[in-house]
Every structure is written in C-alpha cells, then in structure tokens.
Design a protein that fits this description.
Number of helices: 7
CATH topology of the largest domain: Beta-Lactamase
Strand order of the largest sheet: 1-3-2-6-5-4
Radius of gyration: 51 Å
Number of strands: 13
Largest sheet: 6 strands, mixed
CATH architecture of the largest domain: 2-Layer Sandwich
Low-confidence stretches: 1-5, 74-86, 300-306, 410-414, 458-463
Length: 463
C-alpha cells in the first residue's frame, strides 16, 4: 500500500501553520456566526411572539372594558366598525357571532384566524405572510386577532445578519494579521538559530545559543549542540591522529631509507645480508604500526553502531583461539596458561578479538624468555571479566593511566612497538561499556590487565 503523504518535499512550516490557523479561524468564526444568528433569530422570534401576545391581551382588555361600560349605560354590546390608525401591528376585534367590531387601519376585512381558534399561527393573505395571535375574553364574547407582517421580522433578521457579517469580515482580517505576526515572531528565533548554525565552519564549531528559544525548539538545538560537540571531538581526534601517525611513521620510514642507503654501499655479502635483515625489521615495524593505525581508525572516534553486540560466552570464544596463542608462546620460550570459566556478556565479536590480540601481543613482546602468561575469564560480583597477566617488567603505578594514550611508550621499553596497543584496548572497552583495571602481574612483577564488562542479565547460557 502506498502511504499517504501529508507533506511534500520542501514544504514550509510557516506557510502551513498560517494556512491551517487561518482556515481554523475562518471556520470557527463562520460556524460561530451561523450559530449566533440562528440562536438570536430564535430568541427574537420568541420575543416578537411574546410582544404580540401581550399587545393582543391589552387590546382585548380595553375592548372588553369599553363594551361593559356601554352595557352598563344601557347600550348595545356591539358597536359599528371603527378604523384606528396602525402601520405595523394590525388587529381585529370579533364577537362570538363572527361580526367584526373593530380593526385598525390596514387590517383586512377577512379574519386572520378562521373559526374560534386561539393562540399563535401563520397565514397568508393576498400573497403576504402574517404571524397571528388570537385570544378570547373570559366570557368568550370577544375575540382579538392580531397580525404582524412576516416581512417585518425578516427585515430585522436581515439587518442583524448584515451587522454580524460585517463584524466577522472586520474581525477575521484582524485575526489573520495577529496570527501572521505571532507566527513570524515565533519563527524569528528559528531563523536566528538557523543563521547561527549556518555561520559554523569546519574549524569553528561553537555551540548554538539557546538564549530566548522556545521550549519546543530547545531539544532540537540541544541535539544540534551535541552533534557539534561530537564533530568537534571527531575533528580534534582526526587532527591528533594524523599528526601522531605522521610523527610515528617518520621513524620506521627513515630507518628503511637509511638501511637502503647502507645496503647500496655494502662492501661484501655479509654486510649486505646484515643490513637487509635490519631493513626487514624496519619494514615489520612499519607494517605493524600501519596495522595498528588502521585498527584504531576503525574504532575512533566512535565505535561503529551498525553491528549490534551479541550475548556470547567469553570462555568459549577464548578457548577457540587458545591453541594458536600457546603455540606462539612456545616459540618465544614462554608458558601460557588459561583459566576459563563461563562468562556471558554482550560483545562485538570482531572487536573483542582485536582487544585480545593487543593484550596478548603486549604480554608476549615484553615478557622475557622463561616467563609466564595467564589468560583468564569468568564472573565476579555478577559481572563478566577478561584478564591477561604476565611476569614481564610491568608498568609503574604513576604511568598506568598515561599508557592508554596514543603513541605513549615507556622510556625504558626495550622492545619495538607503536604505543597504540593499550589505546586500542581502551577504545574497544569503552565501546562495550567495560572498565579497564591495571594491577600488578605474576611472580611479583609484570602487569595484569583486566577488562570488566557491564552486567548483562543471567550468567548462564540462554535456552
């Protein structure tokens, strides 16, 4: 199924809000005006009917009183028809015999209401509509019939409708201007923030100002500031990485160039073979340094989150690699032992092997012949751990924090290295949310590096 796209590419939030709010305003005001008109018309009809009934009752009382006076004076209870002046309200006075006694000027000769009916009604006389009311006196000798032209009420309703429409036509533009002003005022902050972001350059990554921004926009700008912070950190790491890499590569490259020059001036085969061997050492060092730099570049400044960690057993993974490391230790006349206990944790498979390789390579490189190395894993206090201990020269306590920095090597290190191994280990540990701990090693010397992984739930294999 195709998804309904409410907004097309490049749509304007300002114009959309303005259009929606204007449409809502016009709709609400229009609907309100219609409701008010009909309610007011209903109320006015009731008031007109009430006025019509009160007028009829008053005229009926006056006519009844006049007839009683005539009877008291010995006259007849009827009187000739008289025309009284009237332009708006027309009335007729009838007796119980159906004789017209009174009417005002303009009232028709035919009754508004046929028969002896009472109350309100509507009728049409000579093509004109009338609102009527009829009532009898107490002894039902007189009937008053009052008529009001329907056009009169329509004229009043029409005048009210025009006034209401005029009011709406005046108010809606004012509301539109107010909405436009408010939206522009609100979006001015966004525009200022956008201008502030646009002024950023790759070398000037300052934070966007949050002063005066609305609460709804603040999370977006805070996210932008966090992104700018990560970009600034990335740039700093890249600049430092490039500078350090160039500095470290200069030494093996210079050694390679020197060895080549010496080989060219070698006086005999023995001398040439000696310098070729030195050249191989320099190439191996450069190759190892490039490999470490490539490993570090894949991890720095931020671990690749595209590959999610998997819950695996450290003991099982380490046991699969152990024979190769034991064989390498034997070639160096070192004894490598392992104490592997089940330790389930969330890990990135490939990066864990990089971490293990760097720890073991450091231990193999710096432990003298006849020394011992111990690889261990397990669970302590509910957290999985991995440790590599050796009987080498170790690292002084005051230097144990600095050795995690790039290209930092001990001044008395007698073995070739790049100074990147523990830096890579630290970065991988951080990517796993793990904690690194450096302590004393075996036989009273050496170093133990322990990686403590965060809690990951059950410490047994999932079914």
């Amino acid at each position: 199924m195709m998804r309904l796209r409410l907004f097309h590419a490049g749509w304007s939030l300002r114009r959309t809000l303005l259009a929606v709010l204007l449409a809502l305003t016009v709709s609400v005001w229009g609907f309100s005006a219609i409701v008010v008109y009909f309610e007011a018309d209903q109320e006015s009809q009731e008031l007109f009917d009430q006025s019509l009934a009160e007028t009829a009752q008053l005229l009926l009382a006056l006519a009844d009183h006049e007839i009683e006076e005539r009877i008291a004076m010995g006259g007849h209870d009827s009187a000739p028809v008289k025309n009284a002046h009237g332009e708006y309200l027309l009335f007729q006075m009838w007796d119980n015999t159906g004789r017209l006694l009174y009417k005002n000027q303009g009232a028709p000769d035919q009754p508004f209401v046929a028969g002896s009916a009472s109350g309100f009604g509507d009728t049409v006389i000579d093509g004109k509509s009338w609102r009527t009311y009829a009532a009898w006196n107490a002894d039902r000798r007189l009937q008053i019939q009052v008529g009001e032209p329907g056009s009169h009420r329509k004229q009043i309703s029409a005048r009210f409708a025009w006034k209401l429409l005029l009011f709406v036509l005046v108010v809606i533009p004012m509301m539109a201007l107010a909405i436009w002003w408010i939206i522009n005022r609100a979006f001015r902050t966004l525009q200022l923030s956008a201008t502030d972001v646009a002024r950023h350059t790759p070398t000037d990554l300052y934070e966007v100002s949050l002063e005066g921004v609305p609460s709804e926009v603040r999370p977006l700008l805070e996210a932008i500031n966090r992104l700018i912070g990560r970009m600034r950190s990335t740039l700093e790491h890249e600049q430092r990485f490039t500078a350090d890499a160039a500095h470290e590569l200069r030494t093996p490259l210079a050694a390679i160039k020197t060895n080549l020059q010496v080989i060219q001036r070698a006086r005999n085969d023995g001398e040439r073979d000696e310098f070729i061997a030195a050249l191989g050492v320099s190439v191996d060092r450069a190759t190892r340094l490039v490999g470490q730099l490539m490993a570090l570049s894949r991890l720095d400044p931020q671990y690749d989150n595209q590959h999610l960690p998997v819950r695996l057993d450290l003991a099982e993974l380490l046991a699969a690699q152990l024979p190769d490391w034991v064989a390498q230790a034997d070639r160096l006349q070192l004894h490598l032992s392992a104490q592997l206990e089940p330790a389930w944790c969330l890990i990135h498979h490939d990066s864990l092997f990089i971490l293990l390789r760097n720890l073991l390579e450091n231990a193999l490189r710096y432990t003298p012949p006849g020394g011992v190395i111990r690889l261990a894993c397990g669970v302590s206090d509910g957290a999985a751990y991995l440790s590599v201990a050796d009987s080498g020269p170790g690292i002084p306590v005051e230097m144990r924090e600095r050795v995690f920095d790039r290209f930092v090597r001990l001044a008395d290190a007698g073995k070739p290295g790049s100074g990147l191994g523990l830096s890579i280990v630290k970065r991988i540990a951080e990517a796993h949310g793990a904690h690194l701990l450096l302590t004393d090693g075996l036989q009273g010397t050496g170093l133990t590096v322990t990686v403590i992984f965060p809690h990951s739930g059950e410490d047994h294999e999932l079914a």
